[in-house]
Design a protein that fits this description.
Chain A contains 13 helices and 18 strands. Chain A is of the alpha/beta class. The relative contact order of chain A is 0.16. By secondary structure, chain B is α/β, with parallel strands linked by helices. In chain B, the strands form 2 sheets. A 5-stranded parallel beta sheet of chain B has the order 7-6-5-8-9. In chain B, helix 1 crosses helix 11. Chain B is globular and about 60 Å long. The chains are: A alpha/beta, B alpha/beta. Chains A and B meet through helix 6 of A and helix 4 of B.
């Protein structure tokens, strides 16, 4: 029996919303006690936390690891190391690889690779339709047996509403969670930024924020029709929020997420065509950012994720319209989220509710909390440590972060998965 | 005299005094261009490369002539035919050219921001000859010079820009320049051809051309691209001409001495009546072409001066 005691830690408990000084005891990879007074067994290994924050490890819903297909952009090993260094203990991976993860065979390959190479937990999602091309549904049952935790075509919106209806109906019969990308694709086609004054000044093709609302409206109607369990990957605009609120009030089984970039950046950050700020959906106006932040604070938006999307230099060093979308964020998710803590917008327990507890609950996972019996997936961090982000210090193979050169606060000191230490800031080794 | 720019990428970064500097110098080149011997040596010994990733006869010819009249060695590269077809990226092309030590790079590209991107990778002065739907600064400067010469001033004028504003880099550069010089700018066109967020540009927007032309000093028409006429943005060419084409009747609503401008090439009978375009009492379209060469000479001269100063300073440092 191995036991570890974390002492003198500020325990961030997303379940009861508290942040109090205390200890946490781990036995055999499982949390057995936490609080101000914990009975200490003999021969226990002690981690002195120096008053820093100890929180449940982040459950990052929607990470892209580029295996299979584009291992030069990101592998399970590099993504796993970045995750560990960023306090992410569970990566829920996306199926938008090349080829797409749409069969039990590909899924098994991914699971095997992940187990070999990544120091953190990896739970794969699978495509909802074969090849993510919106025509035929995948083998949802077999894929679930093989370990798929959710089904999504990622940014490929299923335009054929009939196919979508059938896929949702079938998924409902198996209790599968479906993740949709709320967007009206014919309206957003070709868009590189959000339409408005900035888009017009830069001469870039824009999409109206209304396209997101049209997308969510349709998907909510289909959810009502089919009774499926649905999660919206990223809600980023004010106009989409009333529909979400209504759907929840009407008792539909829906949840929603948003990305760290949409919460901490806005469209003006693109400035002179900086392609590292090109994400999908595009960065929004400050009003939309504020509304999204407010929705997260009040629990209307449940999940905050990194939307980690590695892109190599070549695909970003292009004219803005031609450049690829996406940003790496496994390692910047926590320091960027802490900006919202330092600005007084969100408390630390609120942040970890959105980054750990809620995504875990939605996927039926036991982690993401400090309660007795939960796996000891933990992150120890100093929320105040200042640093200047240097993108070449990131462990991801791709270095496409919009936070390059940004002044940030918050350093991960250690990360544990199932009670085993996978990251130590002092030694930098897993 | 002030002109503190390394490149001419757009009107947006220019101060009003810098705009005036370009126009004042251009006046001198207008005089030079009207002489028998049209030659100066401001760019002697310098190499100018014109890189056009998008078709252009007029702008390219204007830049070529401007460079040659100032004594530069001018090379034209038609980029559609060459490397991009072979998959070379814009940055690779820029690096390759940079190794040939050009001094002035004139670039037109179909994507907004592409010229900006290219300018970050080279050691010479870059002039934007039009990037996507973003900016076309020398066009706005030549329009400004034309207006200043015709009206005797470049401030407190009512200027209407009419047509396809949404897809026009000429319109963007003109809105910025005319705004900086404190004019009242009106935009006239169907709402499908207006860019988003236009209300925040500090301009007045009119959907009815007759209303918009009241009391204007300058009517600037824009070219309507063929591919926009097929029902996607407007129902038909004839309905467009009826509602937004400039003819004598609509022009009579403007001030009696209002001038008519067009960046060319014109679609006669689509956005402008042919007879009106040729009316030497109202149309200054040919003047615009003439001013184009002079303005480009001035812009390249000023950038070359800054380039030489920067290089001398670097030499001193080294």
């Amino acid at each position: 029996m191995t036991a570890t005691l974390f002492t003198n830690a500020t325990l961030i408990d997303p379940e009861d919303g508290s942040a109090t000084l205390g200890s946490l005891l781990v036995k055999d990879g499982v949390i057995v006690a936490h609080g101000p007074e914990v009975a200490v067994p003999k021969g226990v290994h002690v981690v002195e936390c120096g008053g820093h924050c100890l929180a449940p490890g982040i459950v990052d819903l929607g990470v892209k690891v580029c295996e299979p297909g584009e291992r030069h952009k990101e592998s399970f090993k590099t993504a796993g190391l970045a995750a560990a260094a960023g306090g992410v203990t569970t990566m829920i991976t996306r199926p938008d690889t090349a080829p797409a993860i749409d069969s039990p065979e590909t899924l098994e390959f991914v699971t095997r690779r992940a187990n070999e190479a990544a120091p953190v937990r990896v739970l794969p999602m699978a495509a909802l339709t074969k090849g993510r091309d919106g025509r035929e549904m995948t083998e949802i049952g077999f894929l679930m047996d093989a370990g798929a935790v959710a089904f999504t075509d990622c940014d490929h919106v299923l335009t054929d509403t009939k196919v979508m209806q059938r896929a949702l109906t079938y998924a409902r019969s198996l209790g599968a969670l479906v993740i949709t990308h709320p967007q009206e694709p014919t309206l957003s086609k070709g868009a590189a930024v959000t339409s408005g004054k900035f888009a017009s000044l830069r001469g870039l093709p824009g999409v109206s924020p209304m396209a997101e609302r049209m997308g969510i409206d349709r998907d909510i109607a289909l959810t009502e029709m089919t009774g499926a369990r649905v999660h919206f990957d990223q809600i980023t605009t004010a106009r989409a929020l009333p529909a979400l609120e209504r759907a929840k009030r009407n008792g539909l089984d829906v949840t929603a997420g948003t990305s760290i970039h949409h919460l901490t950046l806005n469209e003006l950050d693109v400035a002179d065509y900086r392609t590292f700020f090109k994400v999908k959906p595009p960065l929004r106006s400050e009003d939309d950012r504020m509304a999204t932040l407010d929705a997260l604070r009040h629990g209307l938006i449940d999940v905050l994720c990194s939307m980690h999307t590695p892109q190599d230099e070549e695909s970003k060093r292009l004219p803005y319209e031609e450049a690829a979308s996406g940003a790496v964020a496994l390692q910047t998710l926590l320091p960027a989220a802490l900006r919202l803590h330092h600005s007084g917008d969100l408390t630390l327990p609120q942040l970890f509710r959105a980054m750990a507890l809620n995504p875990a609950d939605r996927l039926g996972l036991p982690q993401g909390r400090l309660s007795e019996g939960a796996p000891a997936d933990l992150v120890l961090f100093d929320p105040n440590a200042p640093f200047v982000m240097d993108r070449f210090s990131l462990l991801s193979k791709s270095k496409n972060t919009p936070f390059d050169g940004a002044r940030m606060q918050g350093r991960v000191l250690g990360t544990w998965v199932g009670g085993a230490r996978v990251f130590d800031s002092a030694t930098k080794v897993a | 005299m002030s002109f503190n720019q390394k490149h001419l990428l757009g009107i947006e970064p220019l101060a009003p005094s810098e705009i005036t500097t370009v126009l004042d110098l251009a006046e001198q080149y207008v005089d030079l261009n009207r002489r028998d011997v049209k030659h100066a040596d401001a760019l002697a010994g310098l190499t100018q490369i014109n890189m056009f990733f998008e078709n252009s006869t007029r702008t390219q010819a204007s830049f070529e002539l401007a460079g040659k009249r100032l004594g530069a060695d001018v090379m034209n590269m038609s980029m559609q035919a060459s490397s991009i077809k072979k998959g070379e990226t814009l940055i690779d092309t820029a690096m390759t050219l940079n190794a040939m030590h050009p001094d002035l790079l004139v670039v037109r590209h179909p994507h907004s921001g592409a010229v900006d991107l290219l300018s970050q990778k080279v050691n010479c002065a870059v002039l934007n000859a039009g990037d996507g739907k973003h900016e076309h600064p020398t066009q706005a400067l030549l329009d400004a010079l034309t207006i200043r010469r015709a009206k005797g001033r470049l401030h407190r004028l009512n200027i209407a820009i009419c047509g396809d504003i949404a897809h026009s880099r000429v319109a963007r550069s003109n809105i910025l320049l005319l705004g900086k010089m404190e004019n009242r700018v009106r935009l006239i066109g169907p709402p499908t051809l207006m860019p988003a967020g236009i209300a925040k540009f500090g301009v007045e927007v009119y959907e009815d051309m007759r209303e918009g032309l009241q009391d204007v000093d300058v009517v600037m028409m824009l070219r309507l691209q063929r591919e926009r006429m097929d029902g996607g943005f407007i129902p038909s060419e004839r309905e467009y001409y009826h509602r937004y084409g400039l003819d004598a009747a609509k022009l009579s609503i403007a001030k009696d001495d209002a001038i008519v401008m067009h960046p060319g090439p014109m679609n006669r009978g689509v956005e402008i009546d042919g007879t009106l375009a040729d009316d030497i009492n109202r149309s200054v379209i040919q003047d615009q072409v003439e001013m184009g060469v002079a303005v480009r000479m001035a812009a390249m001269d000023l950038l070359a001066r800054n380039l030489r100063t920067a290089r001398t300073e670097q030499g001193v440092m080294a």
